[in-house]
Amino acid sequence: MKELLTVDTISVSYGNIRALKEVTMHVYEGDIVCLIGANGAGKSTLLKAIVGLEPLVEGTITFDGEEICTANRGRHMTTDLIASRGIALVPEGRRVFADMTVEENLDMGAFLVRDDALIAQRKEAMYDFFPILGARKRQKTRSLSGGEQQMMAIARALMSGPRMILLDEPGLGLAPLVVADIFEKIDVINKQDGVTVFLVEQNARMALRAAKEGYVMENGRIVLYDKAANLLEDEKVRKAYLGE
Amino acid sequence: MLNFFLLILIYSGIYALMALGQNVITGYGGMLSLTQAGFFAIGSYATAILSTRFGFSFWATLPPAALLSALCGLLIGLPTLRLKGDYLAIATLGFGEIVRNVLNNWDSLTRGPMGIQKIPMPTIFGFVINPYTKYSFLVMVVIFVAIAYVLFQRLARSRMGRALAAIREDEIAAEAMGINITKYKVYAFILGASVAGIAGSLQAVFTLSVTPGTYTFMVSVMVLCMVVLGGMGNFKASILGAFIIQLISYFPQLTGLTSVIPPQFKQILFGLILVVMMIWRPQGLLGREEIRYGNEEGEKA
């Protein structure tokens, strides 16, 4: 299987504090990979680093054979360029364009797509996939519930037709039923559309069940890596993250 | 009296151009810039120097005035646009003051505080647009405002308008959608600067003389007031705001109360307007103009 994203011994600092310490990860095309860890472990920082929102102190990130992030600022790609390579981020806290309608948000997601017919077709596909968005397409996004906004954020990310989608805590602050629904959708996106998924989640059980591979992060370091099914059985993981 | 009213209309037009530019920067781009006076001055002096020293016609001075302002917009925009909110305001405020100080001190080029007089009146097909009789000048200013308005309305509905709307709402999300935020912010800044430059050219041929004292920080504040009063993100509102603010600032002269109302009245009133608007109607008199950014299919659905 082809390696799509390679994170090669990267470190990120906030002032004197090392938020990421020599993190290495491999994401293969077509997989769902999850990263679990406690609050403040550095999960979101890693996602931000991948899309170029955090400068690297060392290491490189490669997407589909092309170097997208390095510690050398001159060669570091900007976030919009990285997005144009086919990486879509669903940011933490959703970050929807609240004053725009659902439809306008989806249009924004397709900013890099220049083909109007393709945009219209993708929007219809999104309305079919998330019927609630179709019903609310004329509404301002701020009037949507948290779960609906999360679905909209995912739909918006998919509008660019990405090869890989990065999800930052999609279940945050949502009711368990809604979270289950969202994870079901993520699974369909992966299985039907072949979009590679990299998932960061505090809800470790949900994430490990959905994923094929799992990484565990503690204090900015990857401390464990295995098949997700194995991690679900792992003594330490069960104790620390599954509350058993 | 009629003559005086015409004067107010002409100034409203000149300031409306600046306010339109400010609205692109602040209302659409979401950047709090306080530097329109600087670009205004650059446009004025470009026209003044080129027409008195080098014999350029008024029309021939417009492209260099706009280009020079745009270039300065680029030079100040690139380093400062990564700043946000009040930090950007302070950095741009500094630029306006630098421009004024340069004009005041670069004697060989600008004649310093003496300014430049005897700027030739603009002519078109042999017809002199005389600022003293005002009518033809007013027509010219109105045409300029109309052109700028139409262009900006189209801009707001373009790809760039969409990009600015996204950036204003959430920069990180906009970047993640593949929008190059630096590029579009700089574009907005350059556009706002160049129309202010054009406004400066008009100012130069209206007063037929330029002195650095005209281009104070107060001008930038007035322009910002116009945009806030009218409504951010609404170009019609900027024109309305420009007219109202001009009317207010000439209120003592209009009513013949110059001996009663102190000249500081203007500043006090602008401050009051900003405070009252922020409390009672932060969206401005007309509010933001709703723009649908969808494509055709979406429109019909």
Characteristics:
heterodimer, A: 244 residues, alpha/beta, Rossmann fold, six-stranded mixed beta sheet, four-stranded antiparallel beta sheet, globular, B: 301 residues, mainly alpha, ABC transporter involved in vitamin B12 uptake, BtuC, two-stranded antiparallel ribbon, 14 helices, 2 strands, disordered C terminus
Task: Explain the overall architecture.
The complex is a heterodimer of chains A (244) and B (301). Chain A is an alpha/beta fold. Chain A has a domain at 3-91 and 163-241: P-loop containing nucleotide triphosphate hydrolases (Rossmann fold). Helices cover 38% and strands 28% of the residues of chain A. Chain A has helices at residues 43-50, 79-84, 102-109, 116-129, 131-135, 146-158, 176-193, 204-210, 228-233, 235-241; strands at residues 3-14, 17-28, 32-37, 58-63, 66-70, 87-90, 164-168, 196-201, 213-218, 221-227. In chain A, strand 4 (58-63) and strand 5 (66-70) form a beta hairpin. With 301 residues, chain B is an all-alpha fold. Chain B has a single domain, classed as ABC transporter involved in vitamin B12 uptake, BtuC. Helices cover 71% and strands 1% of the residues of chain B. Chain B is built from 14 helices and two strands. Chain B has helices at 2-28, 36-53, 58-80, 85-105, 107-110, 135-156, 159-169, 171-176, 181-207, 217-230, 235-249, 251-255, 265-280, 296-300; strands at residues 123-124, 127-128. In chain B, helix 3 (58-80) packs antiparallel against helix 9. The longest helix of chain B is centred in the first third of the chain and has 27 residues, at 2-28. Chains A and B meet through helix 2, helix 3 and helix 4 of A and helix 7, helix 8 and helix 14 of B.
